Amino acid sequence: MKPSFGEKIYLLAVYLVLAVAGLLCLLPLVHIASVSSSSLQAVASGHVTFYPIGFSLDAYKQLIEGTPIMRSFLNSVQITVFGVIFSMLFTILAAYPLTRSYFIGRRTYTFGIVFTMLFGGGLIPTYLTIRSLELINTYWSLWLPGLVSVFNLLVLRTFMENIPTEVDEASRIDGCGEWRYLLRIVLPLSTPVLATLALFYGVGYWNAFFNVLMFINEPAKFNLAVLVQQMIQSQTMLSQMNAASGSSEQIMLTPEMVNAAAIIIMVLPMMAVYPFLQRHFVKGVMIGAVKG
Amino acid sequence: MNKWTEKSKLVAACLLGGTVLLAACSNGGQEPSGGTSSESASTSKPKITVSIYDRGNVPQEMGTIDNNRWTQWLNEHGTVEAQYVPIPRGESVQKLNLLFASGDAPDVVTDFATSFRNQLYQQKQILAIDDLIEEHSVHYKQLLEKYPELRKAATKPDGSMYEFGRVQQLVGFQALFIRKDWLDKLNLEVPETVDELFEVAKAFAEQDPDGNGQRDTFGIALSGETGAVINTMFRDVDWVLEDGKLVRGWEQQNKASEFKKKLYDAGLVDKDFLADNNGQKAQQDWNSGKIGIFVGRTVDPVNVSQYYESLKHNAPDAEVIAIKLPSSEYGRFAAGVNNPVQMTTVINRQAKNPEAAMQYIDFMASKEAGEMLRYGADGTDSVKGENGCPRPKDAAQFSKEVSWNLDFQLLMSQIELEPCAGILSQLDPEKPLEAEFLELVKQNNEANLGADVEYASITHGEHMPTLPDDLGVVQTNVSKIDDIYNKAIVGGTSFTVEQAYAEAQDLWNRSGGEQLETFYAQWYEENKDTAFLAKDMWKFVKE
């Protein structure tokens, strides 16, 4: 069927709006990438827009030689990989029982968990707790307090609840126990949501900033988010200062291109992961699960 | 087949996980050994903890900000062993607050923020230091005797000293740059008054000074530091003296805004200057040779590449001079200068060994430590130049090994290292660009430190009193006044400066601005003889 003229206009408008929205997200990144690979002169004169001028990778060289970016990168990887593994493990193990109708005290547990969404201890009590558990300066201070995100837990629980009970009954008749049911039936059926949650956790741990800042005191353990923020913040603070209000703090500036290069190094891994996980979002896993 | 790929994925994941785990373990294993090697050398020395800014700029092979060549040198040569607690620069106040609240704060705390140190004083978190200096200090005591202003700046309302600081020569920090080649081309004189400034800006914008046949130049910048310096020309610095009383300078603010509005209405400035809130766009325009009058800095060798190198690259014929601020009906003022007596350091009241903390501070204030931190080791990092001053032996090597240690120099009184430590000795007159910038530095110091200009504010911002919490709220509320005036600058005929003034007054009165007036007036009345004021700053001009 051929689309009518009105429909064509409509489609055109839709594509236009989506293109503009897409460009709005993409262009700043393209700009940063261009700045990171341009010459100092071009950047300082504001000539760089959406393509590199005077192409040079000096900024990356300077970044790798002049800052602890490699160490921070490895730290970030470590925080993220283990964080995601721990968080996924515990989120699954917490979500599954909450979907079982024969689990006694299900509502009480759910209430207790949701309660933590509404009330938190505040920064200083949290710090004191972490300190008394001797977790300061370890990555456990990042993994443990946020081990299970309540929001993610609820998402997963709701998804698992939607698995038809017929699937459960059928497997029970075939002699399937709890563990086997969870591992062989529920988890494979939940891959789309698991992929999404892993991504949520992954992005969260990769971008972890505030907790690292507060709970980690050794620069050798800082992650990328903290390092990049430091580099950029030092510069903004300097430019905000004027004689009337500011201090005569002298610092070496990290050149703008080096900051841009650091940003690129920071966002690249997450961007590389997205397409692989995205596959799962669109997969219609449930189709054909129940026959008849 | 499918199963096999699943399995191989699992194996790959395990391998990856294992590698990271191994990496983690080896990291963990290295650190203690690195720590002990520096500790074992000095086990008998008393131990203290010291805060140090972390800016993420230590090259990886140099170690970390809390364990590197400089911390090792300091611990080896000092009489105490300092254990450094890194404080991320961007969130320093927040982090230090957290550490104080949980009782983990270091013994020696450094921060640039006057308001934060005053807050520590008000909360009684820090020690009075008079007796410590008297009994346990050599170098710092000498400094105090030589520069009594150091005592003046450190003394808190209860009459005791609470802060340690550093002394520097007074130098021009900001510079009003103007394109001399444009002035010459259009047969203009250096502007001496604000009216002449307007005329010059007009000519710069309208008469195509860069000769490319297009009207694409701006007369002057309005954003960033240039905007602030225009305010200074009119003494628009919030609190001004009138008949010996400190009052809010409304009239000055009106006049400064009117001047900016005039520039804006005549189309001599970037129409989007309000969007350029940190002045970066203006700086890029300056660097690409599109702005004729601009405020930059002449205080650090890095300023050469910031304000001069790119400009000369884009416009090789550009000729720049640093000029005096044009005079207004309120007088003739200095652009921004540094804070010659800058307080940086306090001792935590919870410190177990205040004497050791004092000894650490004393060592950090000594010339020996200062020269080492500033120049590195004589012969390997620096060699003496023709002027007798140490200069980096190899610039790249120096920036990798030495120059990131700036935050260890917060107690170094640079004035004791003069004439070698300042920018005048650090630039290399052999290199043409640096030689030209050297001239700019000299011009700027001449323009801003002379007896014929006045410092617009009563004192440097870091020596202004800290507002109590409730007044801090008022201050935040009335800070919107600047937005109202900005609205007038871009508002054309529909929103004039008079209207902005009326609206600002209204906001001021509604927000309790008179409490601020009372506070500042009273503070000045009570402290005008003891506080560190502009006249004290000018004592640090090099004769």
Give the CATH topology of the largest domain in chain A.
MetI-like fold
Tally of distinct domains of chain A: 2
Structural class of chain A: mainly alpha
Q: Could you give a short account of the major beta sheet of chain A?
A: none
CATH architecture classification name of the largest domain in chain A: Orthogonal Bundle
How much is the average pLDDT of chain B?
86
CATH class of the largest domain in chain B: Alpha Beta
Mind telling me which CATH architecture of the largest domain in chain B this is? 3-Layer(aba) Sandwich
Helix content range of chain A: 55-70%
* CATH C-level class of the largest domain in chain A: Mainly Alpha
CATH topology of the largest domain in chain B: D-Maltodextrin-Binding Protein, domain 2
CATH superfamily placement of the largest domain in chain A: MetI-like
| Biggest interface found | A-B, 56 and 74 residues
Structural class of chain B: alpha+beta
Strand runs of chain A, count: 0
Say how many strands of chain B there are.
15
Strands in their spatial order, largest beta sheet of chain B: 8-11-7-12
Compute the CA-based radius of gyration of chain B: 27 Å
Q: What is the strand and helix layout of this fold?
A:
The complex is a heterodimer of chains A (292) and B (543).
Chain A: H1 5-36, H2 40-44, H3 58-66, H4 69-99, H5 106-118, H6 123-132, H7 140-143, H8 150-161, H9 165-173, H10 178-189, H11 191-206, H12 210-215, H13 224-240, H14 256-282
Helix pairs in contact in A: 1-14, 3-14, 4-8, 4-11, 8-11, 11-14, 13-14
Chain B: H1 2-40, E1 47-54, E2 63-64, E3 67-68, H2 69-77, E4 81-88, H3 92-101, E5 108-110, H4 114-122, H5 130-136, H6 139-146, H7 149-154, E6 164-167, E7 174-179, H8 180-185, H9 194-206, E8 218-220, H10 224-233, E9 239-242, E10 245-248, H11 250-265, H12 280-287, E11 291-297, H13 302-314, E12 320-323, E13 341-347, H14 354-364, H15 367-375, E14 382-384, E15 390-392, H16 395-401, H17 423-426, H18 432-449, H19 469-478, H20 481-490, H21 497-510, H22 513-527, H23 534-537
Parallel strand pairs in B: 1-4, 8-11
Antiparallel strand pairs in B: 2-3, 5-13, 6-13, 7-11, 7-12, 9-10, 14-15
